[in-house]
Write a structure and sequence with these properties.
33% of the residues lie in helices and 25% in strands. By secondary structure, the protein is of the alpha/beta class. The protein has a 9-stranded mixed sheet with strand order 1-2-3-5-4-8-9-10-11, with helices on both faces. Helix 3 packs across helix 4. The radius of gyration is 19 Å and the shape is globular. The protein starts with a strand and ends with a helix.
């Protein structure tokens, strides 16, 4: 695939390229320490999946770009993934076939399925496969919010396939269950601002159904792995925001991982709110990145 090198600040090289996936090309960007031959060979590469409710985000948002920069400065090679995004609402869309048709309505067009599950997951796994193919010791996979769900779902798929390239999994303020678990009184007392009303069970459920495309998909473990048998998943770090309704899903998922025998570390950053990795100047951003980097160094 064509590659384009970028000038990235603070001793990091960044390169744009693409990976061939089952649904077409998947744009990626790889960040590595500029002085990095030793650093790159000493540590497993990282694949990082942004959040955005499955319907928004990309390679340039802070949760993608700034996190990858920070981890590359810490000595890790990071590949970010521009997985296909689902639209809001609707089920099919009309696309031109490329050849002009007669003037009658609908001619020259064909109906194609919209992006829904499992397309974003397939995109992510195509990139993981490509990155792991050049690593002798597997990869570490991470994700935030909806990207954390995709990362956990990829780990589940790999484990069930019997040959996982994943040596570690880190998940930030994710949603892992088809329905938002019950929010405790303690958690409700911590919520502030608009997210108290935005991250409700109904709206999280609507977001998940929009990604799934059908209620029949919601129970599938590779759509939402929360509540399913997580035995065999790799060592995992789950990091939640303190003042975040979605912590109900993250904390339960961490307990489910531990109950399945997975080596699990669970951390809540005091005072933080959802999507702190999307705000470079938020003190929780630095604390979160430092925590992730320290945990990855300890994977061995």
């Amino acid at each position: 695939m064509p590659r384009r090198s970028l000038t990235a600040p603070h001793g990091v090289d960044a390169t744009n390229s693409a990976v061939a996936g089952p649904h077409g090309r998947v744009p990626v960007r790889t960040y590595a320490p500029a002085d990095g031959c030793a650093a790159r060979s000493a540590r497993r590469p990282v694949v990082w999946l942004h959040g955005g409710g499955f319907y928004s985000g990309g390679l340039d948002q802070p949760e993608t770009h700034e996190v990858a920069l920070a981890l590359a400065r810490a000595g890790f090679e990071v590949t970010t993934v521009d997985y296909r995004l689902v639209p809001l609402g609707g089920r099919v869309r009309a696309e031109r076939t490329g050849a002009p048709g007669p003037s009658c309505a609908g001619a020259g067009r064909q109906l194609r399925p919209e992006v829904r599950f499992p397309i974003p997951l397939d995109d992510a796994m195509a990139v993981i496969d490509r990155v792991s193919a050049r690593s002798d010791d597997g990869v570490v996979l991470g994700g935030a919010s909806a990207g954390a769900c995709l990362a956990a779902a990829a780990a589940f798929r790999y484990e069930r396939a019997g040959a996982s390239p994943l040596r570690g999994l880190f998940l930030a303020y994710g949603t892992f269950h088809a329905e938002l678990p019950e929010r405790s009184p303690e958690l409700m007392s911590r919520l502030r601002g608009s997210r108290r009303y935005v991250h409700t069970p109904w709206l999280i459920g609507a977001m998940n159904l929009n990604y799934a495309g059908s209620a029949d998909v919601l129970p599938l473990p590779d759509a939402f792995p929360g509540g399913h048998d997580l035995t065999g998943l790799p060592p995992s770090l789950v990091v939640d925001a303190d003042r975040d309704a979605m912590r109900a899903s993250g904390s339960l998922f961490a307990r489910e991982l531990a109950a399945a025998g997975v080596d699990t570390e669970y951390r809540v950053l005091p005072g933080s709110t959802h999507a702190f990795l999307n705000r470079r100047r938020d003190p929780a951003f630095t604390r979160g990145v430092d925590l992730i980097a320290e945990w990855m160094r300890g994977l061995g």
